[in-house]
Design a protein that fits this description.
Blueprint lengths: L1 E4 L2 E4 L56 H6 L3 H12 L7 H17 L3 H8 L11 E2 L6 E2 L3 H14 L6 H18 L3 H24 L3 H10 L7 H18 L2 H8 L6 H14 L3 H11 L4 H13 L3 H13 L5 H14 L3 H13 L18
Antiparallel strand pairs: 1-2, 3-4
Helix pairs in contact: 2-3, 3-4, 3-5, 4-5, 5-6, 6-7, 7-8, 8-9, 9-10, 9-11, 10-11, 11-12, 12-13, 13-14, 13-15, 14-15, 15-16
């Protein structure tokens, strides 16, 4: 969700920046429990490294009795991942549905902590996600007992684990096939809409993998091929906005302009993206004016405003914007990285200022956007 320009990160503005809790996987398919003891072996779970965590963010291990939901609500993802592994390996084995919820929580928390290699390694414990072992029922009612969110997360992690993101593409296409099947057999309109939303999400994830691989042209072609004619007005707006942003990233400004300011523009979402078009064209002063007029309390838009001010030569104003956001408790990694970059550009005492910033951020109460920050967030 970011565009890199030198050492400053320009973030994509989004319509809704409200923090989101890690979603709990939906109920699994009902059937007699099966032997899942291979998922509960202590050797499946590894200590989470702390060498890339600044000392103020290093906390002792949480009380094992602390509810995981409470830890998540406080943004303590490391503690939640730790307690999830303790529950999975406890003397009293969790129930089948609880195993999947705990595994999802563990892998999601590791991902949010930036521990992708560890998450990828542990996701391999699920083995082949399309194996008949995971299927329940018979005939047209046959379905995987693995919750949808766990499968979606594991597809990408397992591809990372083998060092080949291309493997995620057929995994997502397999999920798309499952979603289409549920759409045709849905018993209610609400179920049908749920699976349509999941199908749309998988389509975007395919484009994301292609972009991660550096094949932006293929990602753009894929997004162009997605049929959004039956989507809601909001979904159409987001789809067009994604295309506009991706074309900006590629450098195809004429195509980006079509989705941001042209007849196919993405409505109110496009208004948030238009300043990035000015950034791509090198018109930083104009971008700063546009962002200043639309920023409000939107975190990513205000961060983009600071970036535009930096490139316009307004270092002092840029620092004031980011400092104010930190004081308000909006200490996202993106913001901290940009502020640390400004320290490096403006003073020889950047190390001291970064150390003070670490202490200041560590005092901010956690939220479900996460409390812990890594060394690289402060460019340390």
């Amino acid at each position: 969700r970011s565009l890199l320009a030198g050492s400053i990160t320009v973030a994509e503005p989004v319509k809704d920046n409200a923090p989101r809790e890690i979603p709990e996987p939906p109920p699994v398919v009902t059937e007699p429990p099966r032997d899942l003891s291979f998922l509960l072996r202590p050797e499946n779970f590894h200590p989470i490294p702390t060498q890339d965590v600044p000392p103020p963010f290093r906390k002792p291990a949480p009380n094992p009795s602390t509810p995981i939901a409470e830890l998540l609500s406080q943004g303590l993802f490391r503690a939640a991942a730790h307690n999830a592994s303790l529950r999975l390996t406890s003397e009293t084995p969790p129930l089948q549905h609880e195993i999947f919820t705990l595994l999802y929580t563990r892998l999601a928390c590791l991902t949010l902590l930036g521990q992708l290699a560890l998450a990828a390694q542990e996701s391999r414990n699920l083995q082949d996600l399309s194996s008949p072992f995971w299927l329940a029922g018979s005939g047209p009612t046959k379905a995987s007992i693995l919750p949808w969110e766990l499968r979606v997360l594991a597809v990408r992690l397992q591809a990372i684990g083998v060092g080949d993101l291309r493997r995620a593409v057929p995994g997502y296409y397999d999920l798309a096939r499952v979603a289409r099947g549920h759409i045709t057999t849905a018993a209610s309109d609400s179920d049908r809409e749920l699976w349509r939303a999941r199908l749309s999400d998988v389509g975007v994830r395919v484009a994301n993998v292609l972009a991660e691989m550096g094949d932006f042209e293929a990602a753009a072609r894929h997004l162009e091929s997605l049929h959004i004619s039956e989507a809601s007005a909001q979904d159409k707006e987001l789809a067009r906005g994604r295309l506009g942003l991706l074309y900006l990233r590629i450098g195809r400004l004429s195509d980006a302009r079509r989705y941001i300011v042209g007849e196919d523009s993405a409505g109110s979402y496009a208004e948030l993206l238009r300043p990035l078009l000015s950034v791509a064209e090198g018109n930083y002063s104009s971008a700063a004016k546009q962002l200043g007029a639309t920023a409000g309390s939107d975190i990513l838009t205000r961060s983009n405003l600071a970036v535009a001010l930096v490139y316009a030569g307004e270092m002092k104003k840029a620092r004031e914007v980011l400092d104010g956001m930190v004081r308000n408790g909006d200490a996202l990694p993106l913001l901290l990285f940009n502020l640390s970059t400004i320290f490096e550009l403006c003073t020889e005492k950047s190390k001291t200022l970064k150390a003070e910033l670490v202490e200041k951020v560590a005092e901010i109460s956690g939220s479900n956007t996460g409390w812990e920050r890594a060394m690289q967030d402060f460019k340390l």
